[in-house]
Specification:
- The chain is of the alpha/beta class and 344 residues long.
- The protein has two domains: 245 residues, TIM Barrel; 71 residues, no CATH class.
- The chain is 42% helix and 14% strand.
- The protein is built from 15 helices and ten strands.
- The strands form two sheets. Strands 3-4-5-6-7-8-9-10 form an eight-stranded parallel β-barrel, surrounded by four helices. A two-stranded antiparallel sheet has the order 1-2.
- The protein is globular.
- The chain starts with a strand and ends in a 6-residue tail after the last helix.
- The mean pLDDT is 94.
């Protein structure tokens, strides 16, 4: 395993880290089995959140007290008030079965909380740190301007931000900014919400950034085993992998949905984070389940869009979500029609 110093935290963690959002979709027994296998294979960094239903609980069930000192746990709160943060933290500590959280992250706020702020969030974090309940104050974000301000403020020990082989110059500059300010960079969405299907190329890309710790979202044991194989024998960007990366960049050169989900809820009931990338999904990955009658009916709700624009105001990437969904849905309908004999 390759290890990375996570900025000013001085924590040294495996560069191959475990993103625990997807294990909420597995049974408790399966989730614990996958998490324990990751630990046994040497992974030391596990990222979760209060918002990920029972993900924290599964982590808590996976690691006994004598294992706690050997791992680093990061969790998140989406609280808007100091009281909400304290309640989230107590719940997380109970679910994780631990007395402290190594890296406690504000979960995608639309501003940078600071000491003395009317929201009280940062002061609540300072109090929790003084009590020994958290060890490092951190933040996640999808908005480049908020991320930059957080890094430059000196108030946060790590930043979690979307980063992948599809990232643009603005994102690459953010990685360098974190290195300059000794802020740990945790990369979410290293597979760009499922749009990147070449995990080998994605892993090789990350190898070029020695201050970046990607958290690979893992739902199945075979996914974990694939990343463990790459960690044991890191792929190098040879001509074939560079060509694969360039092909993906070219194919997704236009604005694309990262599936962060912050556009929700839609008043018309449209699953925008799926609809806005549905054609990319069916054209780049196993598609049979995505063209089922049930899924086609779900995607048909795109036609119910009223144009209210609520989703556009919430998208951290400034995407025109309705237009993107309509474009993707039109291509999806053609794709489904061409594969009508395979629909179940």
């Amino acid at each position: 395993m390759e290890f990375v110093r996570l900025g000013k935290t001085n924590l040294t963690v495996t560069k191959t880290a475990f993103g625990a959002l997807p294990v909420q979709r597995r049974s408790t027994a399966d989730g614990v089995q996958i998490l324990r296998r990751a630990y046994d294979a040497g992974i030391t960094f596990f990222d979760t959140a209060r918002a990920y239903s029972d993900s924290e609980e599964k982590i808590g069930l996976s690691f006994s007290a004598d294992m706690r000192q050997k791992i680093v746990i990061a969790s998140k709160t989406g609280a808007k008030t100091a009281d909400g943060l304290r309640k989230d933290l107590e719940t997380s500590l109970r679910m994780l079965q631990t007395g402290y959280i190594d890296i406690y992250q504000l979960h995608n706020p639309d501003f940078v909380p600071k000491p003395g702020g009317a929201d009280g969030l940062y002061d609540a974090l300072l109090a929790a740190k003084a009590e020994g309940k958290i060890r490092h104050i951190s933040i996640t974000n999808h908005r480049p301007h908020v991320a930059r301000e957080a890094v430059e403020s000196g108030l946060y020990d790590t930043l979690q931000f979307p980063f992948s082989m599809l990232s643009k110059e603005e994102d690459l500059a953010l990685v360098s900014l974190c290195q300059k300010h000794d802020v740990g960079f945790i990369a979410m969405k290293a597979l760009s919400g499922g749009l990147i299907t070449n995990a080998c190329a994605a892993f090789a890309f990350m190898q070029d950034y020695d201050n970046v710790v990607p958290i690979w979202g893992i739902q199945h044991m075979h996914e974990l085993e694939e990343f463990l194989a790459y960690a044991a024998n890191p792929p190098v960007q040879d001509e074939a992998l560079r060509a694969a990366i360039e092909a993906d960049r070219k194919a997704l050169a236009d604005d694309f949905c990262r599936a962060c989900g912050y556009c929700a809820p839609c008043p018309a009931g449209i699953d925008l984070s799926t609809a806005a990338r549905i054609y990319w999904l069916v054209s780049r990955a196993p598609y049979k389940g995505l063209i089922s009658r049930e899924m086609q009916a779900k995607m048909a709700k795109v036609d119910d869009c009223t144009g209210c624009g609520a989703c556009k105001t919430r998208c951290p990437y400034g995407l025109d979500c309705p237009s993107l969904a309509r474009k993707q849905y039109a291509l999806y309908k053609d794709f489904a029609a061409a594969h009508a004999n395979e629909v179940e």
